[in-house]
């Protein structure tokens, strides 16, 4: 275990990446109006998120929910210090993203052959060849690249993915000079022991390569996995406002790790996320009006731990009766 | 931190106490038929739970949902090694429980004056005086006593409860010779740093007194709190099948720590809970038919991490198309 005490954050900095505006909204049936998306990104910027995955530069027929990527990326108010990233599947997307002044390109492929075929309609080797060109395009433009590797903690169709297989994919991208890698638990199969071991192995092998962890709360383990990651040396996490998101290949799956739940817990533990909890909770509570349904966020429902409740209306009377019996 | 590695369970024994049949069912609007309650307890016994809080011996008008306590306690099939406990509020309840051959009496009061008044209609000093008589009754009959202290991690009306106040209440009951104390997070206010500190303080002061932790998942921290407890030396946890339960004084609160979620995570981490996960998941999935609504259990919905899914029906075709492009 880490020599520092996991349970005492002691103001250690944890970086929170918001993915709800991309990974969350892309799953929604309802098209969230462009001005509402911009307002949401602006609210998340103001709340202090370190990085925001604003949108995706994909085909508008593939993901109609995000067909307004250019406008959103161009019209958001950029907070100094926040990185505005976007998902990019190919060179065309990269060009669009770079033209829209995206700070960082986020590339995606899966370490599971079956999941990659289902999700991206390509073999992994084909995806890698395509991303090679995207990385070259980004590097020519001087734009940083992050690679999100899906299914690093298991594939919902194949099952376990060996740690060595995950690390081999990280190595291929490290060799290309990308700035960071995100190890994604795409369908909530990660568990703390496994997370601790993989993060420790990554940090030992690539102490300088950016590392982000992306968890889903499908089986209630997202926060525990975040803590296992911190204990193994990680300090950067994807999370989604309201816990939006999911995976079409894993029925019954709840969403991404919920931004306000993770921030709420980490701040109580003394970590410094840089995030204003009140503002993200307000943003989470505004989501149902935008997307037309409730979110999985427990903090949006129950409030923060010291959001106190009034005693029942008859409290004075029942206290009187109790005292009279003394 | 504990000298043992939290992330590697290494077959360390963790004891799971099922509270769904009492703490869960008492909140339900629907009366679960007596024979279904008995079948549920029997299923939980067969699944290997260490202790089961079968029912409560309270006034049938106070908690009509549990008005069949005697019959249930008498007719369950007792598995050797499982402890069958029941909630008991007063001497009359203790006598009924003892007559029904209850293995252990579980007493409840709150460390928060406001919560105790709301929940038990008594001052804490009045509750303590009443429990003193219950403990004497139990001790005369040679029946072990556990005391569940509500609001040990905060009161939803008063806010934080000082650790010294919690420990003072434990001391009063330790002085009376009870067998164990449960530190209850009645409305999901506990967070891992606080849990680690309180459990460590308890274990340092009362290394021999039984200790159980009772968490709610109101703000998504139940599993993280269990792990913090284990790291501080605890090994016994209350949890509720399906995540049933809640607290009427904390609107929006989701239920108790969910038995199958905690067991699923701990078993993956290499701990030995003695619980057959498949059997508790089956019991959880049978609950909606008994109580007339869905439960918060994420494992009941999503399945265990290696419950794999079939690729989509057109998988062979899309694979062909991908290969043709190579």
Automatic annotation (TrEMBL), chains A, B:
Cited SUPFAM superfamilies: Aldolase
GO molecular function: hydroxymethylglutaryl-CoA lyase activity; metal ion binding
Pfam families cross-referenced by the UniProt entry: HMGL-like
Pyruvate carboxyltransferase domain ranges (all copies): 14-281
One GO biological process term: ketone body biosynthetic process
Keywords: Lyase, Metal-binding
Family that this chain belongs to: Belongs to the HMG-CoA lyase family.
Name of the protein in its database record: Hydroxymethylglutaryl-CoA lyase
Organism, as annotated: Comamonas terrigena
């Amino acid at each position: 275990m880490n020599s520092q005490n996991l349970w005492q954050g002691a103001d250690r900095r944890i970086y929170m990446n918001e993915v709800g505006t991309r990974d969350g909204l892309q799953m929604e049936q309802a098209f969230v109006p462009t001005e509402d998306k911009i307002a949401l990104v602006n609210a998340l910027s103001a709340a202090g998120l370190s990085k925001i995955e604003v949108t995706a530069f994909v085909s508008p027929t593939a993901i109609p929910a995000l067909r307004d990527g250019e406008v959103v990326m161009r019209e958001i108010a950029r907070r100094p210090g926040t990185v505005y990233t976007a998902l990019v599947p190919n060179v065309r997307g990269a060009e669009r993203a770079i033209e829209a002044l995206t700070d960082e390109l986020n590339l995606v492929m899966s370490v599971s052959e079956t999941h990659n075929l289902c999700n991206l309609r390509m073999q992994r080797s084909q995806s890698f060849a395509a991303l090679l060109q995207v990385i070259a395009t980004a590097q020519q433009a001087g734009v940083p690249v992050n690679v999100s590797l899906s299914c690093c903690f298991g594939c919902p169709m194949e099952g376990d993915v060996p740690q060595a297989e995950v690390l081999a994919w990280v190595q291929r991208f490290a060799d290309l000079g990308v700035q960071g890698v995100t190890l994604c638990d795409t369908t909530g199969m990660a568990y703390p022991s496994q997370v601790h071991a993989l993060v420790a192995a990554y940090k030992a092998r690539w102490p300088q390569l950016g590392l982000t962890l992306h968890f889903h709360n499908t089986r209630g383990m997202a926060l525990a996995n975040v803590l296992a990651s911190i204990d193994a040396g990680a300090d950067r996490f994807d999370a989604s406002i309201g816990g939006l998101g999911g995976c079409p290949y894993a029925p019954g799956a709840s969403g991404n790790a919920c931004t306000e739940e993770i921030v709420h817990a980490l701040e109580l533990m003394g970590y410094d996320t840089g995030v204003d909890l009140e503002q993200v909770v307000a943003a989470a509570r505004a989501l149902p009006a935008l997307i037309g349904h409730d979110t999985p966020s427990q903090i949006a429902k129950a409030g923060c731990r010291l959001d106190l409740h009034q005693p029942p209306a008859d409290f004075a009377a029942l206290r009187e009766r109790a005292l009279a019996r003394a």
